[in-house]
Sequence to fold (331 residues):
Amino acid sequence: MQRLFSTEDMSAQDAFRRWREICEDRLVPMSQNCVGDRPFHASIDGTVIGGLAFTKFALSDLDTSTTSQSIRHRNNKTDFLYLSMMLAGNVNASQNDRSTTDATGDLSIRDTNTPWTIEHRGRSELLTVEIPRARLESVLGSARHFAGLTMSGRGPVTILARSFLCDLLRMGDQLTPQAAERMTSIGVDLVVASLAERMAKDAPKPLRGVLIVQRAKAYVAANLGDHDLDPSRIASAMGVSLRHLQTLFREDGHHIGAWIWQQRLEKAARHLSDPGCLHKPLNEVAFRCGFGDPAHFSRRFRDRFGMSPRDYRQTALVSCAALRETTVPTT
Fold:
């Protein structure tokens, strides 16, 4: 990661002013106040991997909050949610009427569209990841259902998500752009799975059906390459009957079997349009997306996208090449 800011060798007044400026640029506009009598010390490191911005903050004795006024600020990044990972220390936080104490190893999500408060007492380090809002809400529903929840660092899914993101941060500069994008997508999928598991623990009854569907969708996303994935297996993994799961999906506007095939086809389309997957034979793409029969894959793909997988790949690559040509600066 690149060092973006440090209070070392700076006057206290200049350090805090500069700190606030960079925080507003890397995160969102917010109110910040030092607490206690000790001089303010902090640092910020950042990098971008696969299109996701990673920022590491080290600080002590600070209160931060966003308000209705700061949310309306032109610099507020309303299209993003922020994953917060505690690396050291702990913070007291509140958002959406949820008050939590986040300890080392815990994960949480902050929503830039609703006010929050965070209290740092003593030394703390945290890593934030800027995630497109649609990436989480498309699976988990509105952020109001999960922003402000804490995912315990002792949970197995949270441990996997945290370990993967930390390893990705450590090795991100060694990845090709295409590989980095694929790896960050996997990391976000793990965050989704951890969030879905956490939401299911204390959901009120009216939301339980919604959360079962959201957990089922996260499970499907993580297992699309499994040829044995079917509605019965998903129901078993969710701990509900097949009939109940089918009913919940119908209420969500989907037939579960058709929805699974749709996700497989869309994953295949993403692979076919990815220049980094050009070396993969069509049969391998089909297999990795859960299709055991190439003819079945080709037929379903043509029905969904109006062309064969081979033609789809060629069209996507031509479009990508044309886009690169238009963006090359002229001299």
The radius of gyration is 22 Å.
